[in-house]
Each structure stands twice: as C-alpha cells, then as structure tokens.
C-alpha cells in the first residue's frame, strides 16, 4: 500500500471513525502498513507536536513532568517503555474492536477499580480481594463470550464519540504527570492526544498487538530523545 493511500485512509477514518476488523499482523502487507503508520506517528510527534508543546511550556514557564523523578534507568525504561504501553493499551484500546467479550471485561474492570478506590485503597484485606474478584470475573466473562463476534449496534453508532472520548481521557489522565493541573497545562498533553489518535487507529485497523508495538516504539524514541537532550 502506498504512503498516499495509507494517509488517505487515515484521514478518512479520522473524519468519521468507524469500527474496523483489525487484519492482524499476519495479514499480507500488515507489517509494511504498521511500519508506515508507526514512523508517521513518531515523526509527527517529535517534529511537530512535541515542539509545539515545548514552545507552550517555555512561553508560560510551565514545569516539566515529574512522574518519573528519582527512578533508576532500569525502572524508567521498564515502566515507560514496556509496562505502561501494555497496560494502557489493554485498558484504553483493547475493547475498541467492539467484541462483546472485550466490552464485558472492560465494564467489570471499571466497576472493580471504582470499588477498589472507594473501599479498598490503603486497606489490603479489602482491596486485594476486590482486585482478585475483578480479574476473575473479567476472565470468566471473556471465556463465556469468546465465540461472539457481533458488534453491538449502539457501540457501532456511538463509535466516533467513543473513539475521540477515549483519546481525551487518555490525554487528560497524563495531566497527573505534572505537579500542578490548570487550563494552561492542557496543551502539555498534546503529545498524548496525538499518540492516542494514532494508537486507536492502529488498534482498529491492524490489531491490539500492533498498537502495543507502536506504543513501545514511540515511548522508546521519546524517552531516548528526552534523556539525550535533558528535556
């Protein structure tokens, strides 16, 4: 597939996101498509989005993120480049394909996390059973619904709002990386917003594993540049 066609398909999807059946990385041409989309995502991120964010940060004297302050290089690379991409893709984008098993598992996970925050945070005797029950329930539902491939009509019709809503939530949660949250800080998560858009498209166009690999590659490049430049 040519670069022009790849970007044309991306633009058409972003104008009106629709649920797609990810072709998987084993499909003919999938790795070439993944490479093209991943390189495009990283180039735009580093050459345009991050530069705009840095200009905004400098103009208003905003602080840099402090989420990883004090972490050893091993922990930093393991957390930012391996663990975070896997967990974030599982939570934010694994279910974007619309399959009932993934939607059910997401609903149980969100309910379980809410119960943990409300009742079990800081209380291991309560919190651990809640997390264990949540994981068990999600696995059971996934297994019971594993053969269903139908996409709920309401999910399909609401998909544009779901897609961009997920992007906004994904970006907004990264405001927690900064010592102070304010309206001025919103442009500081533009990199996460752009990345969320591209990861979402790669997820539905190719598949979850492809989105995880792009997330890993993107974080690795950004972290390497940040460490090299001291930003």
From TrEMBL:
What GO terms describe the biological role, i.e. biological process, of this protein?
CAAX-box protein maturation
Give an example GO molecular function.
endopeptidase activity
Superkingdom is Bacteria
Which keywords fit this entry according to its UniProt record?
Answer: Membrane, Transmembrane, Transmembrane helix
Matching InterPro entries: Rce1/LyrA-like_dom
Respond yes or no to whether keyword Endoplasmic reticulum is given for this record: no
- Residue span of the signal peptide, if any? none
Q: Where are the transmembrane segments?
A: 31-54, 74-95, 102-119, 125-143, 155-175, 208-228
Keyword Transmembrane attributed: yes
Q: Which Pfam families match?
A: Rce1-like
Q: Which residues form the CAAX prenyl protease 2/Lysostaphin resistance protein A-like domain?
A: 73-221
| Name of the protein described by the UniProt record | Putative membrane protein
Which species is the source of this protein? Novosphingobium aromaticivorans (strain ATCC 700278 / DSM 12444 / CCUG 56034 / CIP 105152 / NBRC 16084 / F199)
Organism placement in taxonomy? Bacteria, Pseudomonadati, Pseudomonadota, Alphaproteobacteria, Sphingomonadales
